[in-house]
Amino acid sequence: MVSVADKFNRYAAALGVGLVLAIVLFLTTSHKPVLDPKHPLCEQRPYIEPEYGHLANSSQFVSEEYKKKSVELFAGAIRIPTMSYDDLAMDPTKDERFNVFKDMHNYLFKSFPLASKHVETVNTYGLLYTIEGTNPSLKPVLLMAHQDVVPVNNDTIDQWTYPPFDGHFDGEFLWGRGTSDTKNSLVAQLEAIESLLSQGWVPKRTVILSFGFDEEITGFRGAYPISRLLHERYGTHGIEVIVDEGIGIVPFGGSIFASPAVTEKGRVDFKILLNTPGGHSSMPPDHTGIGIISELAFELEANPLSPVIQKGSVVEKFFDCMGEHAADLKDSERKKFLRSSTHDKLLPILESDPATRFIVKTSQAIDIVQGGVKINALPENVELQVDHRIAVHQNLDDLRSRMNEFVKKVATKHGLGLEFDGKTILKKTPLGSFNVSTFGGMNTAPISPYKGEVWDLLAGTTRHVIDDVIDHPYGPVFMAPSLMTANTDTAHFWDVSENIFRYLPVFMSDTNNIHTVDESLNIRSHISCVVWYYEFLVNACN
Ligand SMILES: [Zn+2]
Fold first, then answer.
1. What UniProt keywords apply to this chain's record, in alphabetical order (predicted)?
2. Catalytic: 215?
């Protein structure tokens, strides 16, 4: 017999167990909210409302009337075919293909007469504008762009909807080579400064504009001598901030992200020569030089570099910003982007897209192979060249030792010698020898700070311009520091400023076909640049 009291006790016990179970289940199935507003991973900085004083408001640039004027100024620069060819002479006075830059100068001097009172040329075609500030204790601000464009391939001219150097405007887009890269920013910077000067503006902080003329072929003729001149004038890190071409405003997950690149990937190329004994091909060894170097190529590609997101890196920060501020992400998706160094959910997503995979890993491209001269003769000299763009978690030495290991393995297997950057790794043998040399070596650029005064200036200006001045179909903009997977002229300026941002205030959805057929830009993203440079200069120098 079970008493009523016993029954009650059992019910109570069952209820108690049930309650505990329910609480445990509740605690394990309900989770902390994915986002914690009190501890943001990607803090957004306040808007900056420019203090114009006697100056006109930046809304002067968003009228239909100004747009017409701006299109003409921009199109005029597109009509001058300032193409950079790989085989141009190092001395610009020794190659008449540079003469077109004279036309560019004449055009810019005529179109922006007030700015032109402040210009000097550097190494014949580099343009350096200096508007002296009244307070010499303030470090100057430097805006950069390049005058040159990549060549238009003659075979593709008839594929262009509008000829590449006509500067055709269709009412929305300006078409032509250089519209996106980067006569847009060059002309916009001059429009902003011309407007300021026309209003009698005298900056407190010196303003400098620097326009190289061979960015597309490494910048050693244009940006490099300008960088040395500025270093001489203002000293190491004597420039407060540099803004050059770079990443723009990226749409993602229902939000938009202004993504100044705070660093750019490094680069290294390897030239691998293999010398083996010649002879008649009727009596060949099992492996000719071509076979052996192919084995090396196969091994390199069979072992690609791994993707990595390092804790605390700008890469992690970039994806934290996306995860935290993308409006339309489901929580399950959001989690993949947040704190991505602590789990492996994001890497496969990035790896699957050619546009994102090289943000997180070093690239490897075998671009040149040469060898063999005659069908009945063994190849004596064979060559392989490999290009790497180095990710932020690696450096030159990592890549050198990796290449050394791969070549050593193949050399050992075939009984060959190996010399690496002049150092003997394996002694030369009668069977032959590898000779590896490194060139174009450059580590990842120093990281510009993405918090503090200068970042706040960039962020506050961007938020004001994009959210309050420019008309566009998107919601509010968020700042997300990023990295460039390619190189810019700023590679020559590491000792000139600690704050280098590769950034264009353009909507990435407005730019089409950089470096290829039908390059074009929505004029909205030209106006957004004019407004941004104008407000940035007012905020930084007024
Ligand atoms: Zn460019």
1. Carboxypeptidase, Hydrolase, Membrane, Metal-binding, Protease, Transmembrane, Transmembrane helix, Zinc
2. yes
Nearest in space to 33 (alpha carbons), one of 441, 335, 370: 335
Task: Answer yes or no: do 143 and 286 share one domain.
Answer: no
pLDDT at residue 535 is higher than 50: yes
Both 239 and 280 in a single domain? no
Which residue, 44, 70, 13, is CA-closest to 533?
A: 70
Task: Note the pLDDT tens digit of each residue in 181-195.
Answer: 999 999 999 999 999
Q: Which residues are annotated as a binding site for Zn(2+)?
A: 146, 181, 216, 244, 515
* Residue 320: CB atoms within 10 Å: 19
List the binding residues. Answer: 146, 181, 216, 244, 515
ipTM: 0.96
Q: Cα(245) to centroid of ligand 1, in Å?
A: 6
How many Å from the N-terminal Cα to the C-terminal Cα in the chain? 94
pLDDT, tens only, 470-513:
999 999 999 999 999 888 999 999 999 999 999 999 999 999 99
Known catalytic residue at 87: no
The catalytic residue among 214, 215, 240, 419 is 215
For residue 239, give the CATH number of its domain. Answer: 3.40.630.10
CB atoms inside a 10 Å sphere around CB 369: 15
**Are residues 207 and 274 both part of a single domain?**
no
Task: Say how many domains are in the chain.
Answer: 2
CATH number, residue 327: 3.30.70.360
C-beta pairs of 39-43 under 8 Å, 24+ apart in sequence: 40/324, 41/317, 41/320, 41/321, 41/323, 41/324, 41/338, 41/339, 42/317, 42/320, 42/321, 42/324, 42/325, 42/478, 42/479, 42/480, 43/451
CA atoms of 389 and 71, how far apart (whole Å): 36
User: Residue 305 is part of which domain span?
Assistant: 266-442
pLDDT at 31: 52
What value, to the nearest 5°, has the Cα angle with vertex 512 and ends 389 and 465? 95
At position 456, the amino acid (one-letter code) is D
